[in-house]
Predict the 3D structure of the following.
Amino acid sequence: MSDVVAITAIAAGGEGVGRLADGRAVFVARTAPGERIRLREGVKLHKSFARGEVAEIVAAGAARVTAACPHYVQDHCGGCQLQHVTYEAQLAAKRAIVGDALRRIAKLDIGDPEIVEAVEEWRYSAKVSLAVKGGRGRPRAVGFHQYDRPGSVFHLKDCHIADFKLMALWRELKQRLDLLPAQLTHLTLRVDREGRRHVIVESTGEPWRNPEALRAALPDGANVICWWQPVDGAARVVAGPATGFPATAFEQVNPEMGTIARGWAVDQVGDVRGAVVWDLYGGIGDTAVALAERGAQVVSVDADEKAIEWARGRAAARPVRFIAGKAEDVLPTLPEPSAVVVNPPWAGLHWNVTLRLTGQPVSRLIYVSCDPATLARDLHRLSATYRVTAVRAFDLFPQTAHVETVAVMEAA
């Protein structure tokens, strides 16, 4: 296909979007707004849209920059989507992605929300999830998938958005892959809020037989905790202290920005002194503790038993009731709340949670979301009972297309 396409915006997922001659939207990775590109032959046509690849940038956009990470260009790394555009353009794109979802899916008459820019554009991630490409019983490549070949894996040298502590661990670890299980399928590195580093190994076949050998081989092995997780099974500590922060529990990969977003969300709850507040999908209890400091009677629910166990040991201004279970299952047992904070996973609210919140509305509902599309879907479902009074986006994931959003609702 030799037609020249004008890229007008960045869509959810990070691809540039333009129009084909027949009017269909075409999505093209690694393009920037304001560019004119020529598409490679073999555009994949669908009923109402198309996907293509760049053959030539006829005219570069003003927002285009040289990506800082060599993997982004040389290896087509799929971990980031927006390194090729300025940070200002990234922020504008994320505002537009959230605003579009709220208008198109939630049917809200609303502009693009304000976005809080990241404290750090690089080296912010406290977690790295590495894919494994095996061969003859041993990993052949450990790294990230390519965006245009999702079945392939390139060997990681350095991830520019990962915390330096994790990359220092990776530099040592990648020289000792023979100390990991032979049937390695996935590898996660994480630094926790106590400064300790975790190696979480997923594998098929036999358990990790000698994880202590890895700790002994690492320069700072005493501060490394090894976890083994069978495929489709629960992870457990196999070397190092089994007490402390649960590395498999959910926590924002950008802790500093997560604190800022959470602070704003809690501020929006208002005066909760003496009031019952639900903290649903509460994880390790950060929001619950913040609400307790404001005098609330907090009930925090999460399905992750390890997260709840750790949260129960936290100091709080007043007691918090932590419950391990699925939100949709335990709601009937909870005391009536005055306000609710929800922070669901990518899939959004379970339908039964939505029904409970609409059937018995609370004065204020705060929704913390990691996915604009499911946020918009849930806001539309909740609109029968609530009205949206404020929305703010937070850039927790610079260089990627992901964005965190907090929506504030009041009973209509």
In short: The chain has a mean pLDDT of 95.
